[in-house]
Fold:
Amino acid sequence: MATAGVASRRKSEELILEGKVKVNGIVVRELGFKVSEKDIVEVEGKVINKDIKHVYYLLNKPIGYVTTVKDPQGRKTVMELVPKDKRVFPVGRLDIMTDGLLLLTDDGQLAYQLTHPKYLVEKEYHVKVKGKVGLDQIEKLQNGIMLEDGLTAPAKAVILKEDKGETLISLTIHEGRNRQVRRMMDAIGKKVLKLTRVRYGHLTLAGVPVGKYRLLTKKEVEKFKNSVTHLSKILDKKQ
Ligand code: URA
Structure:
């Protein structure tokens, strides 16, 4: 309720204890009662969560941070790098040794859609590997590689640079399996020296230094929502 701007935290608690708050038509008197986006919350007969504003952060994750809300092993988490006043969570994950673009939001619906492979949101990685990479290996990455959890979907793979016994590849995928890029490189016999996510859909790291974040603009969020809606319609027609 405080997030929706209805009242201060204390006043909200008073309203709850006075029985003036209903969730899905039922009076709730429990402080700290959790509601999801789908629940209809009424305060003194007025629905208050029709247009709760969500927040979307684009973080340039450094190496050495884990992508979880809490880490039982006490390691540094990405949550330490964004404001704590909103209940945001990471959209998908990056390994502790991967850096680059990570989205965090409190919008569960969009987070789900962005990570679902059927919505085809592209994720581009720059992968530095040891040694040279042959065209046959690039073709394998592009056509699909059999991993233990199945064949990878077609990807875009381009060699960006070859220098001092190292090769920099741009790899664009729209799946998000666990450690997918590292496993794909493993499968073509290449050792990953550095892995950075440089793009997520239409968003890049431009202007965001390592360890810093920025808010997404309304336009950027709308663009994601529009493409998801557009694809949903196409997929519904196919069924
Ligand atoms: N693929 C990986 O292997 N690791 C990441 O962090 C992201 C994609």
The domain at 122-200 is CATH 3.30.70.1560 (Alpha-Beta Plaits). The pocket of uracil is lined by residues 94-95, 98, 179-182, 195 (CB under 6 Å). The chain has a mean pLDDT of 92.
